Amino acid sequence: MHRSVALLSAVTVAVAGALVSTGTAQASGNGLDPTPARWSATDSWSERRTVLSYWTSRRMLAAQPLAAPAPRRTARSGGPTQGNPWATRGGSAGAGQGTKQGTGQGTPWTIRRSSAGTAQLQAVVPNSPGLRWTDGGAVVRTVGRVFFTTAQGRNSSCSGTAVTSANESVVMTAGHCVKLNGAFHRNWVFVPAFDNGRRPFGTWVASRLLTTQQWNVREDINFDVAAAVVAPLQGRTLTDVVGGQGVAFNQPRQRQMFSFGYPAAAPFDGSALIYCSGRAFDDTVMTRDLGLRCNMTGGSSGGPWFQGFDESTGLGWLNSVNSFKYNFAPDFMFGPFFGNEAMAVYQAAQRTNAL
Q: Cβ-count burial of 339 within 10 angstroms (0-12 exposed, 13-18 middle, 19+ buried)?
């Protein structure tokens, strides 16, 4: 039986900019080059000023949801490769911790431990299907809306997260938020803490975009992961201004998760940060993804899934991103497992010059 899915972008008509590919996929046996695909989003301050002037609040607020085609999967498609657990802890600029590159390994932190010493993640609302986040903390500063122009000349919105990194300039999001239907997006910007058109921490223009080769070549939904490297703004780097969340790869499945995003389709309008929470489960329909009960809609794509999320600080380990929903199961969200391929995207992004 044919299974249809919907990715979670949002679009409206506008003017297109320029994006040049600087990476090509190389076949290697039955697989692909493990080096992430990357593109130049902007090459000069002149281009970045043009992108900044293009994104008026009116254009941002005009974004509308788009139902994207079914993911492209082939006989060679498989799940992410899994290696040793690896994680780096984030920090909140607002809390004075700064952003520090970590080298820790193992599973993410837990909020509390039982009397027997076993790890237990606890949540104020442990099974939220979609509520407005009102508790503040670092998540408000580090999560934001992503805006770009598609190859068809339409403006689109996704969500993204500022994460701790060596260059202090990395935003993690979904693969289809940088490339979709074989075409690259342009005019790519990140707006942390977006609030009904207000941009309290400015608009950050991407200089480089990266995604997995599996998404770049065949748009395999199992690898719907991407990163953007954003240029400094007024002489400061992104996580120096807003802080950065931790990231974690090759972690255990079926753990408690918190998902965040800026859904823009009804009953939401893209003006507020929404979250879902619960224990993740494995998709058994057609992907190797993680699932979570969540009613977020178009525009939430690329928003973070956190393991070990601490509601008192708003910090956690980004361990997946909002990717897609099955049309026959609109109350469930799915996100890719963060294995070696997702880790390679992050590692390449944090080594990239932001200028």
A: buried
